[in-house]
Amino acid sequence: MEIVVRAAIAFGLLWLLAKASGKGTLGEMSSFDLLVFVVMGDLIAPGITGEDRTLTGGVLAVATFALLAVGMNYLSARWRKVDRLIEGYAIILVKDGVVDESALRRQRITTEELKVAARQAQLESMDDIRLALLETNGKISIFPRA
C-alpha cells in the first residue's frame, strides 16, 4: 500500500511540474527537455518503490501511474470544470495584430516562436493575424484576417 501512496504523490508532483513548465514547452519538447523528463522519471522511481526492488513493487507503481492517468482522462472527459483544471484552456497570444506580451511571458513563448508559427501559416507579419491561440496541446493556432 505504501508504494501506491508514494506513486500517487509522485504522479501529482510530476503533473504539477509538467503544468508549471508551460504549454508551449510540452507541445514542442526539445531533445533536452525530453531527456530531462525521462531522467526525472528515473530519479523518482526509487523514491516511489523505496527499498522494494521486486517485480511486484515496480508493477504496482506503474499500475498506479496508469490508473491515475486513466482516471484523470475520464474525469476530464466527463466534467468540463475538471477538464479546464487538468488540461487548461486556449490562451490568446495575438488579437487583431496586437501581440499579448504578458501571455507570451507567462507561457514562456518567445516572439520568434510566434513568428515561426505565423510564417508556417503563410503570414508575413503580426498585422496579418486576426487571432493566434496557444491551444491546450501546446500548439499555436493562427487565424488570418479575412
Question: What percent strand?
Answer: 5-15%
Separate helix tally = 7
- Specify Rg, calculated over alpha carbons: 19 Å
What is the succession of H and E elements? HHHHHEEHHEE
Number of strands: 4
| Overall domain count | 2
Strand order, sheet with most strands: 2-1-3-4
The backbone outline, from C-alpha atoms, is elongated
Straight-line distance between termini:
59 Å
Membrane topology: Multi-pass membrane protein
Organism: Micrococcoides hystricis
Protein name: DUF421 domain-containing protein
Domain YetF C-terminal: 78-144
Salient structural properties:
CRO Repressor; 12% strand; four-stranded antiparallel beta sheet; 4 strands
At a glance:
The protein has 146 residues and is of the alpha+beta class. It has helices at residues 2-20, 23-27, 31-49, 55-78, 80-87, 101-107, 111-120, and strands spanning 91-95, 98-99, 129-134, 140-144. It starts with a helix and ends with a strand.
